[in-house]
Here is the input.
Amino acid sequence: YFGLPPEFLLPPDQQVAAWQVHALVSDAERSQEAALHAAMEEVSLAFVLSAFRKAGLQLLPGALWRSEHFAGKLSLLPAYRRLLERLLEMLVEAAILQPVSAGWQVLRTPETTEPAELLAALQVEHGKRPELRLLGRCAARLHDVLRGAQEPLELLFPGGDATEATQLYSDTPTARVLNGLLQRAVSSACAQLPAERGLRILEIGAGTGGTTAGLLPLLPADRSEYFFTDIGPTFLNKAQERFSAFPFVHYQPLNIEEAPAAQDLAHLQADLIVAANVLHATRNLEETLAHVRQLLQPGGQLLLLEATERRRWVDLTFGLTDGWWRYADSRQGHPLLTPQEWRTLLQAHGFVQV
Here is the structure.
């Protein structure tokens, strides 16, 4: 019933051809989202410059700075060295700094703008979107986070409340499109499922359940097993309450950085594995994908959702956590991979791609 080769799954290219991706979002909504995210990049830059001003940093044209000088002025914790390099890269993107052999040369003195005012204008235009609320709360305390005076997780989840993070991963137009793709893939698998077969799905790093919520109603309750996994008990306990109406869901701790056999999980052997914006947060992607492969049935499919663009507002929110920068593999300067880098890595581990 469960554990048999998932021969019923259509090849990925045949699935995608039937998804009608264009129907997930209108042209007007796509344009509005692009304008919002472009504006958020400018607001994010203003927050970085504000943090530098709070630290007493004066950027005068022609001045030469070393990274160590920036770190000293900011009273930077060693854990945030990679984040500092990313902040300086943002100033390079804005033609405020340029990298030189001796460090960073100031090209121009940036204008003094109040990021809170820019953010308020965006909220008037676009409403109090969860990403705007997160950015405002996190980036306003950037200087405090860098020097260890503010715990970043309290900014992301104030008082342990994950409401905004949940909305970000489920309610925004971007989330609806990406989750819609996953839902189409799961619906396709259900449509092909033989009457005598069961479907076993494992979700890695399910977190707040923003992705899960759209998948569970699609599954045949009498022929499904869904393993909701995360690294710690907090998300598992909350998910158990949230998804109590789905008795076929199992809640299982899983650290994908460790071998499944060492966690007594090698037996799971899923037909589908869902990993939405989680694998990049592991130290070594080569090891991580090897562990994913060990949890997947031969012939099973990995539904991988990953951001592939560096966005300032993301680095000033989720990038404030240690985990965002903890990679220890071949990645350079940022945890996110480009589409081509993902294709190369997945191909090396035997995953067939679309």
The first helix runs from residue 12 to 17. The beta strands are 64-65, 97-100, 103-106, 199-204, 224-230, 249-253, 270-276, 296-305. Residues 50 and 84 are 14 Å apart (CA to CA).
